Amino acid sequence: MMRKLCGMSVLLALTCLLQGCISFGQPSPETEYYLLTAEAEVPANIASSAQKQLLSVGPVLIPEFLDRSQIVTRSGSRAQIADQQRWAEPLDSSVLRVVSENLERLYPGWTTVDHLEPLAARADCSLRLDVRRLDGSPGKQAVLDILWQLTDRRSTDPPRTGRFQQTVAQDGDSHEALAKALSQGLVQLCREIPLR
């Protein structure tokens, strides 16, 4: 009798567990993945240099509230974490990749290298980024707030620093439009980096 009662309890517990895991006839929403993209266009009047300078890019520091795969949107001091809309790669890697690509397009005399690569030790300059905000609200605007530090390793001059703050209007009310607006904002950041 006790064995039968114990077996029924286990069966009842498994049934309850399965009911909580199964959605009855309703498909679970599909997760969508987004990328930041390099949006800069190569200037038509600038020729590529045969002798390229080397720029080490990174690290890219990301605040904890953004350092996740889910896309974070904000309204005032309220943050919303999207369960089904995610970044396709870690945000620090994405910013590093996009900034590097944009800089190479805008300044053809420069080649970029990830700061973790061995070649970075031989770089002429290094660029460090400290992201304060890289978010927004779908359908409204994207918000970028990024501190940058550019060090010329060939000089004894102190590093050049700046703070880039910009809002970018979105073309639509989707998370895709937010990612596109953030990408466009990163182009503007790269235009402010004083590489010559």
Task: Describe the protein in words.
The protein is an alpha/beta fold and 196 residues long. It has one domain: 3-Layer(aba) Sandwich (Rossmann fold), CATH 3.40.50.10610. Helix content is 28%, strand content 34%. A five-stranded mixed β-sheet has the order 5-2-6-7-8. Strands 1-4-3 form a three-stranded mixed β-sheet, covered by helices on one side. The longest helix has 20 residues. It is elongated, with a radius of gyration of 23 Å. The model has no long low-confidence stretch (mean pLDDT 88).
How many domain regions? 1
Q: Helix amount, in percent?
A: 25-40%
CATH class: Alpha Beta
| Total DSSP helices | 3
Average pLDDT, rounded to a whole number, is 88
CATH evolutionary superfamily: ABC-type transport auxiliary lipoprotein component
User: Helices and strands, in N-to-C order?
Assistant: HEEEEHEEEEH
Q: Give Rg in angstroms.
A: 23 Å
CATH topology-level fold name:
Rossmann fold
Please outline the major beta sheet: 5 strands, mixed
Q: Determine the N-to-C terminus distance.
A: 85 Å
Based on CA inertia axes, which overall geometry fits? elongated
Detail the poorly predicted runs.
Answer: none
Structural class by SSE content: alpha/beta
Strand order of the largest sheet: 5-2-6-7-8
Q: Secondary-structure blueprint of this entry?
A:
Elements: H1 2-21, E1 32-34, E2 53-61, E3 70-75, E4 78-87, H2 91-106, E5 110-114, E6 125-136, E7 141-152, E8 160-169, H3 175-192
